[in-house]
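Checked the freezer inventory, then went back to the computational side. Two predictions to log before the end of the day. The first one is the construct we discussed on Monday; recording sequence and tokens without edits.
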Amino acid sequence: MVRATGFGSPAEAYIDDEVDWKEILFPKPHAMYVFSVQGTGLSEQGIREGDYVIIDSSCRPGPGKLVVAVLEGEFCLGRIEYGRNGMSVRSGNESFPLKEGEGIRIFGVVTRLLRMFPS
């Protein structure tokens, strides 16, 4: 038998019911994927190597959106930009044109970022 002793926490009244992390992180589980960030190309935008991005493949990409693109069979994290030559994906210092049939396609839009802090 275990007995609780002492006073209750004053914060007890403010504690929410259980948090459903699955619902928060993956509201559309059929269309969402997790990628681990490798490289430092987007560190100026607050995305660090070792972070995790959650992408939604059902979201429509647009200017300024952070996306995961597929370029020559490799996944690449970048931001969509509009310029003189049309739409492109900028990843770090490189820019890749988004033209029909030219080997780059958008896999999904980044909707969440997870970062683990050292314990």
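The second is the one RB wanted added to the comparison set:
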Amino acid sequence: MIKRCSVKDCKDPYDAKGFCKMHYVRNKTYGTPVPIKQCFGCRKEFPWNKIAFMNRAYCDECENLIRKYWDWLPSRLQSIQSHGVTVIWFINTLINQDFSCAICGLQRKDRKKFRNLCIDHDHNCCPGAYGCEKCVRGLLCDFCNLLIGRYENNPRIFDSVSSYLKKEVMPNAFC
């Protein structure tokens, strides 16, 4: 009969000192086989009793959410984290925005083409390509993100564009 790990609900075979290899290493590193960790997604504390998901400690709820919406996430998750927000914030914002751009409402049906959704942030708070959790506003398509980024410091330009588009078309004298 194979000896099993002494940690509750762990079915892995015994390796050393009554623990499987994972729990043995955690016991050696953290002083307990089931350390209390902060979820990388929601930042709640939970007993870390399983293998790390994507090299991070996620609670079951966050891990399931990430797996469910995996195809909607950017290919580089660092782009989300560099704005000071979590993957769970990104997924919840996607859901709240009905999987569409916050400005134009463009909704892509094909998830693979949706990867170019951008995290918009206030450049007055954080100049440059990345923001912080205080200045992140929402998710925009590439076009709207470029538009906002170009004219963010001069919001009156939007009023000018709006009034210009409402003008009547001038007859062409050469027709």
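For RB: The longest strand covers residues 136-140. The chain has six helices and four strands. Let me know if you want it refolded.
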